[in-house]
Amino acid sequence: MIATDKVLLGHGSGGKLSHNLISGLFMKHFSNPFLLKQTDSAVLEFTGGHLSFTTDSFVVDPIFFPGGDIGKLAVCGTVNDLAVSGSSPLYLSAGFIIEEGFPFNELEIIVRSMADEAKKAGVIIVTGDTKVVNRGKCDKVFINTAGIGYIKQENLHIGEGSRIMPGDKIIINGTVGDHGMAVLSARQELNIKSNIASDCASLNGLISHVLDEAGGIRFMRDATRGGLATVMAELAEKKNFGIMVEESVIMVRPDVRAFCELLGFDPLYVANEGKVVMVAEPDSAQKVIQVMKSHELGKDATIIGEISAENPGKAWISTGIGGKRILDMLAGEQLPRIC
Amino acid sequence: MIATDKVLLGHGSGGKLSHNLISGLFMKHFSNPFLLKQTDSAVLEFTGGHLSFTTDSFVVDPIFFPGGDIGKLAVCGTVNDLAVSGSSPLYLSAGFIIEEGFPFNELEIIVRSMADEAKKAGVIIVTGDTKVVNRGKCDKVFINTAGIGYIKQENLHIGEGSRIMPGDKIIINGTVGDHGMAVLSARQELNIKSNIASDCASLNGLISHVLDEAGGIRFMRDATRGGLATVMAELAEKKNFGIMVEESVIMVRPDVRAFCELLGFDPLYVANEGKVVMVAEPDSAQKVIQVMKSHELGKDATIIGEISAENPGKAWISTGIGGKRILDMLAGEQLPRIC
Questions:
Q1: What is the mean pLDDT of residues B161-185?
Q2: Structural domain contains residue A29
Q3: What CATH number is associated with residue A305?
Q4: Which residues partner with A303 through β-bridges?
Q5: Shortest Cα distance from A319 to chain B (angstroms)?
Q6: What are the backbone angles phi and psi of residue A178, rounded to the nearest 5°?
Q7: In a domain, A334, yes or no
Q8: Is A198 contained in some domain?
């Protein structure tokens, strides 16, 4: 139906070319009864209770990287933001801003990635929008996804962490720094070859597995921009507890560590896209680890630290040789356009 | 709290500068209990029933134009998409993609516009995201808004138009072409002075007024990209009815008409941002007009045509001198980046 191999300004016009784009590409891959109605809004039915609602724009550069692409990332990112709020992700919106001249075959790969990942995560893309801007006015393609999830009553406070207590254990489901270093290694200007793949994954399956089978979770957050260190610093900030994590038990792939050292990055500050930090009550922590390890995305789950009554408002890391340092938020930008 | 007058890459990092941006700008203007929690997702309570969910990205150029700016537009656009689905708009998300170096004072004007318009429309901006891309990788600022509305049972089919019948009247709440020509006249390269202001407005107040006081509405759509003509062509497409509108009764401001003639545009295809097309059952049409006229945004409400059993699938316009022509969707793009 699309008689050109590149995206034209007219594909964002709302006219015939827009219709061709919708029916020939988006409907083909995202097809579901909500989108088929082609109404201005999707109509969704709920039984009542609490919903979570979130949004994220994705501007990753490059748009294709080992382990994923901007489409997969756009689905995983919003699914994960919903999941760490204690909700089951249900519906996504997708807003595309595309540069005039962007190749259709690349757009189709991205849209197919979104459809595949949505299917995997069990969410439905129910509404969307496409804008096309003149050549040079954006960089290839940006994608916004917003999402709606359903929160069971018992998980209502997990996103806030208002029930965290000293002695609670801090858990992460695996290695840190993979996503950031995978994207960076894919940037042509660096001309570096590596085997690092992004950890980009929808975590809702792992998270619901832990909530259902283990319990005792008092807080969750995905460690994206700013990495594990920023989650720790944010969590401690302005609270009446401190955080102490143990550097030696935080897993970093050797190639990620080597790449970080080469470029002067701290892997604790590098973005992940498939890592969730959980705070669990002390008695549940071992069970959480055991349940996590039984899931594909939690095989490397580790207790990395605990909530402490000391040093309220601060996150500390013990550096293995008896020393410790503060995990503060970065002032500036370590890696622009990592997600 | 912001020690620079321009947006830096670090403002999109998730670190300290991001926090300053959120607390110093977004919280200041959007402040509400949902945002204050600073969780990954907003937690919303519903009693059950049907919700509408929609998304739109805004890339208008220029970002400031007579009658509005990209911020006001981003709120109105999504509010209107929800409202024409028969729902009461409740919650919005806001995703910003900002070019490095964009002036903070302009960003603050835009954010304030969003806050003002949200207040006016009675919606709450409950979740957001900010990305900053390197200079030259986007054009100043793009904004995505997604929105959630609540649909009363009796309005559930209004967005679909599945109940439209021959004889139904087609109504619009005023002049066409204002938004497109206002934006175009603001483009510096044209160097044209005009008094045309965008009709950019949140239509949910007018729409609920009509639904509550008049009734008999079988379909609604806002006439944005592609203008009134595209709404008519889309509505008729693949249906077992035709559409006949009367050109002479469609109101176009004289300066909009003159500007369109000068530049070779058809005002029926020019974008509006404060115009809703309604299809009303014949017995209700006069009451709808009367109720619309009692609202500030419906003062110029007019019956412009009707649903016909003839020419199924086609929208026709009678041209006043006994002739008629088909209103088809445009093949390409008349005005890029109009919203």
A1: 96
A2: yes
A3: 3.90.650.10
A4: A171
A5: 22
A6: -60, -50
A7: no
A8: yes
For residues A164 and A153, give the distance between their C-alpha atoms in angstroms, rounded to a whole number. Answer: 18
Calculate the average pLDDT of chain A. Answer: 94
10 Å CB burial of residue B253 (0-12, 13-18, 19+) is buried
The one-letter amino acid code at B66 reads P
Q: What angle do CA B89, B139, B223 make, to 5 degrees?
A: 40
Residue of A22, A40, A153 best to disrupt the B interface, most CBs of B under 10 A: A40
Shortest CA gap A61–chain B (Å): 10
pLDDT digits (tens, 9 = 90+) for B137-152: 999 999 999 999 999 9
- Domain boundary residue, one of A155, A186, A202: A155
Rg, chain B, Cα only: 21
pTM summary value: 0.97
Residues B253 and B290 in one domain: yes
Smallest CA-to-CA distance from B205 within B141, B287, B123 is with B123
Closest chain B residue to A331, measured at CA: B16
Q: Is A36 in the B-facing interface, judged by CB distances under 8 Å?
A: no
A83 contacts A104 by C-beta, under 8 angstroms? no
Q: What number of residues does chain A have?
A: 339
Residue A336 lies in a domain: no
Asked if residue B132 has pLDDT above 70, the reply is yes
Q: Which tokens belong to B320?
A: 């006043």
Q: Are residues A177 and A136 in the same domain?
A: no
Identity of the residue in A56, A82, A134 whose CB atom sits nearest the CB atom of B95? A56
Task: Write the CATH number for B146.
Answer: 3.30.1330.10
pLDDT average, residue stretch A271-275:
98
Q: B160 or B127: which carries more pLDDT confidence?
A: B127
Determine whether A14 is exposed, middle or buried from the number of CB atoms within 10 Å of its CB (0-12, 13-18, 19+). buried
For residues A13 and A144, membership in a common domain is answered with yes
Task: Tell me if residue A171 falls in helix, strand or coil.
Answer: strand
Same domain, A128 and A274: no
| Structural domain boundaries enclosing A79 | 9-155
Are B105 and B209 contained in the same domain?
no
Q: How many domains does chain B have?
A: 2
Nearest residue, CB atoms, A129 vs list B14, B57, B332: B57
* DSSP strand pairing (A87-99 vs A68-69): unpaired
Q: Pick the last residue of a domain from A155, A178, A201.
A: A155
Distance CA(B182)–CA(B195), nearest Å, equals 8
Q: B78 and B186 share a domain?
A: no
pLDDT of B25 > 60? The answer is yes
Two structure tokens written together for B325: 């022509």
Q: What pLDDT was estimated at residue B331?
A: 80
Which of A10, A48, A134 lies at the smallest CB-CB distance from B46?
A48
Query: Do both B148 and B177 map to the same domain?
Result: no
d(Cα B315, Cα B183) in Å, to the nearest integer? Answer: 27
For strands A87-99 and A124-133, give the pairing: parallel
Contact B40, A85 (CB under 8 A): yes
Q: What ipTM was assigned to the predicted interfaces of this complex?
A: 0.96
My answer on whether A215 and A137 are in the same domain is no
Helices and strands, counts by H and E, chain A: 10, 14
What SS3 state is found at A161? coil
Scan for tokens 């004289």, then name that residue. B254
